[in-house]
């Protein structure tokens, strides 16, 4: 049986080697036909603690790692907007 792969957004990275991923899907209402959003949170294994809040990641179903953790992060699809980027800017007004 193939493993399921989902795409979601990291909402929490506070626990060690674990991230919480929010996965949203759109479904049609059975009576009214309107498209509505349904969401679910999954705990995913992040061995290197490298994923941050706001990152869009792909998670894959795995064997149970703990009581609530049965998913593992495969890779980052898109980084969060608050990512720190190094820059070589010297401050002109500062004397050393």
Give a short overview.
The protein has about 100 residues and is mostly beta strands. About 0% of the residues lie in helices and about 50% in strands. The N and C termini lie far apart (about 65 Å).
Classify the secondary structure makeup into a structural class: mainly beta
Assembly type: single chain
Cα end-to-end separation: 64 Å
| SSE sequence, one letter per element | EEEEE
Estimate percent helicity.
under 10%
Count the beta strands.
Answer: 5
Strand content: over 45%
Give the overall pLDDT as a whole number: 89
User: Order of strands side by side in the largest beta sheet?
Assistant: 1-2-3-5-4
What does the radius of gyration come to?
19 Å
How can the largest sheet be summarized? 5 strands, mixed, barrel
Task: Specify the number of helices.
Answer: 0
The shape is: globular
- The parts where pLDDT drops under 50 for at least 5 residues are none
Description of the structure:
Strand 1 and strand 2 form a beta hairpin. Helices cover 0% and strands 48% of the residues. It has 96 residues and is mostly beta strands. It is built from no helices and 5 strands. The radius of gyration is 19 Å and the shape is globular. Strands 1-2-3-5-4 form a 5-stranded mixed beta barrel.
Layout of helices and strands, plus pairs?
Blueprint: E1 5-12, E2 18-28, E3 35-45, E4 56-61, E5 69-78
Parallel strand pairs: 3-5
Antiparallel strand pairs: 1-2, 1-4, 2-3, 4-5
Which labels suit this protein?
mainly beta; 5 strands; 5-stranded mixed barrel; 96 residues
């Amino acid at each position: 049986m193939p493993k399921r792969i989902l795409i979601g957004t990291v909402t929490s990275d506070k626990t060690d080697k674990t991230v919480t991923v929010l996965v949203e899907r759109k479904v049609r209402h059975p009576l009214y036909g309107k498209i509505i959003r349904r969401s679910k949170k999954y705990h995913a294994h992040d061995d290197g603690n490298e994923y941050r809040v706001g990152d869009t990641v792909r998670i894959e179903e795995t064997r149970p790692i703990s009581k609530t953790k049965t998913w593992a992060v495969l890779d980052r699809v898109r980084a969060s907007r608050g990512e720190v980027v190094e820059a070589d800017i010297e401050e002109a007004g500062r004397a050393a």
